[in-house]
């Protein structure tokens, strides 16, 4: 069968690569002729709104999925009339609007921090008053990797944030003091089977994910149960098919949901080598209607993102247990150009290898 | 960089797939327009002897390698004038002729069973007399998967073998009673670094590999040392670059070398998920001059070949720890169309999963 993928970035690339061993092929659609997934599978270069190209994608695919969160909802709705689509369009719509997302969390009893919408300057001041300072002001749509948001500590910050972001509808969120961040990744297929990956501890810097540690010692059974309740509710509410991610803050009040992503997630890249079945293969299995694969991890692992440009490959390759993923993208400040998964038999070995790999990765990182 | 690969079968397919995460691309050459590696990387469809096509391959590649043992030596010699080639042409020549192979083993002190060449009926009778019955009569060249050979127990068998195979130069080998078969897979890069995989126990039926078990409990330290001495000598003698395999019989006299393959090997497919670095990635690293990857195995694994046609995918996918590799080839009796790697945390779990997977695989197997 052939899986159509909206988006030709690294997530599409890794999805296409995960499909081949299953005997499946992919075809991608992306507006950029340099989309890195185009190296590994056929790429339709077209605008998201190009209906002829969307029809072409649908014609060539048995099922269509997406790897890019900012695909216009309209394109997906159009596609749904021509092809089987998963995850459902509603999941994309929810994830595209921070206000709808938080409201859905609230309605489903998924704990989240205080928030309030703001479409005008007056509403913003009112919302800040209600939420209190410090707070985080974000655009409701099109934010990623820390873009489209501002941490505000005082009235002048609020004014500056309005000047910078106020042309778009906003949301004000309480600044949540958290112990650490984690993500929950789950998969659900058409049959309704669910597979859960172990929770992952995530470390961000300058708004960009830097490091992910599945099965970190900080992750308790209680956190795992709380996260499972949240993902279960969201999967059911959305009648979801595919891989779904929720990012949480771990606070004194327990888990607070920050956001969800209706797709494979950067924090799950470790699973290519670190789990028996990767998030990419399980997404493909899910949308194809195959049984989901085992998400157990028989090896210790951690993932480092490569930001801006790839580190020296041979230096990395010389460290035992280091798996290199170069997305073959051109270098650019702040761009995710690759990742490295470090494998080891035990925690001590992992720490040792990780600190060696981290030094090489950070040496090449620009931010 | 781009790696040119002579041969577009499943080995080329898995080599190309192993290159992508390293940020490398492949281009393949194969006479067949349905070569299954052509699904995952650009394919030049041309005869092995087509010098223009060979030049095209060389032009598009930084280094050229091969996945197919019966590439004409002439093609490789021609390519060597236009590109960097690894493994060396001499390794291919040795592996293509069972007599030269056995003579080289003998010269290097790599123990092998008794053998004698035969180019005429008289020489054959003489060779059989010298070696004794039972014996195995094989064509010196172009044999694979049990093709081009006959087990002979009496004079009539010898006569039949001559009638069937006598148009080609032959070799007579003693029939070696063995406890089991194993393979040693090693990699060596341009810098001369060597990486060794654990020995693999192999089970054949009707001349075709059916099952491989890395780190089988039958494999002793003594066998490992004997095999390492043999592979070391061969790597050094050939000034080898790439992955090299030697297949051995385990007999009361110790290891007897049966044959070598100057390429990634079917018995090493388990390493995609079962070892920290797969044989395919290590071959790519070796020919690209990168440091070799860690060959440790942190999980129990075994591999089953899918012969003739793929078994039911969803039945297999429902078994935890089962990794499916469908080469997307059309079904044909005796053809290797895919393999399955079974992963588990311990031997008992492995045996359980393996017997479930084996039942499904054998149900679809025609021979």
Helix-and-strand structural type of chain A: alpha+beta
- Quaternary state of this entry equals homodimer
Q: Helix coverage percent of residues of chain A?
A: 25-40%
Query: What pair of chains forms the biggest interface?
Result: A-B, 38 and 37 residues
> How many beta-strand runs of chain A?
17
Q: How many angstroms separate the termini of chain A? A: 41 Å
Strand and helix order of chain A: EHEEHEHHHEHEEHEEEEEHEEHHEHEEH
Overall CATH class of the largest domain in chain A: Alpha Beta
Largest sheet of chain A: 9 strands, antiparallel
CATH superfamily of the largest domain in chain A: ATP-grasp fold, B domain
Low-confidence stretches of chain A: none
How big is the Rg of chain A? 20 Å
Write the layout of secondary structure elements.
2 copies of one chain form a homodimer.
Chain A: E1 2-6, H1 10-19, E2 25-30, E3 43-45, H2 51-60, E4 63-66, H3 73-80, H4 89-96, H5 98-107, E5 115-118, H6 121-131, E6 135-139, E7 149-152, H7 155-165, E8 170-174, E9 180-188, E10 194-196, E11 200-205, E12 208-214, H8 221-238, E13 242-251, E14 254-261, H9 271-274, H10 279-288, E15 300-307, H11 313-317, E16 322-326, E17 336-344, H12 347-364
Helix pairs in contact in A: 1-10, 4-5
């Amino acid at each position: 069968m052939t899986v159509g993928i909206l988006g030709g970035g690294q997530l599409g690339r890794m999805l296409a690569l995960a499909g081949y061993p299953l005997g499946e092929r992919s075809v991608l659609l992306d507006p950029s002729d340099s989309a890195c997934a185009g190296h590994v599978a056929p790429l339709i270069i077209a605008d998201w709104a190009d209906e002829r190209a969307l029809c072409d994608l649908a014609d060539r695919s048995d099922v269509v999925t997406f790897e890019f969160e900012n695909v216009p909802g309209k394109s997906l709705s159009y596609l749904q009339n021509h092809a089987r689509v998963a995850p459902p369009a509603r999941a994309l719509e929810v994830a595209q609007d921070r206000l709808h997302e938080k409201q859905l969390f609230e309605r489903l009893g998924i704990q989240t921090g205080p928030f309030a919408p703001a479409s005008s300057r007056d509403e913003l001041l009112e919302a800040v008053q209600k939420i209190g300072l410090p707070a985080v002001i974000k655009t409701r749509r099109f934010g990623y990797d820390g873009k489209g948001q501002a941490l505000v500590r005082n009235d002048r910050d609020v004014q500056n944030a309005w000047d910078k972001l106020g042309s778009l509808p906003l949301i004000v969120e309480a600044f949540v003091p958290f112990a650490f961040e984690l993500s929950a990744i789950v998969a659900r297929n058409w049959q309704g089977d669910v597979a859960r990956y172990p929770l992952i501890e995530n470390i961000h810097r300058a708004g960009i994910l830097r490091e992910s540690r599945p099965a970190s010692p900080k992750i308790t059974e209680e956190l795992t149960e709380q996260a499972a309740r949240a993902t279960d509710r969201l999967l059911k509410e959305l009648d979801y098919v595919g891989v779904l991610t929720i990012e949480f803050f771990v606070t004194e009040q327990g888990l607070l949901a920050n956001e969800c992503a209706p797709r494979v997630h950067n924090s799950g890249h470790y699973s290519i080598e670190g789990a028996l079945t990767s998030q990419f293969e399980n997404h493909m299995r899910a949308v194809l209607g195959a049984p989901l694969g085992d998400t157990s991890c028989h090896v210790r692992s951690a993932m480092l993102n490569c930001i801006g440009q790839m580190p020296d490959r041979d230096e990395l390759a010389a460290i035992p247990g280091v798996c290199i993923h170069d997305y073959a993208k051109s270098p650019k400040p702040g761009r995710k150009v690759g990742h490295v998964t470090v494998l080891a038999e035990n925690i001590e070995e992992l720490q040792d290898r990780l600190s060696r790999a981290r030094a090489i990765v950070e040496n090449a990182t620009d931010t």
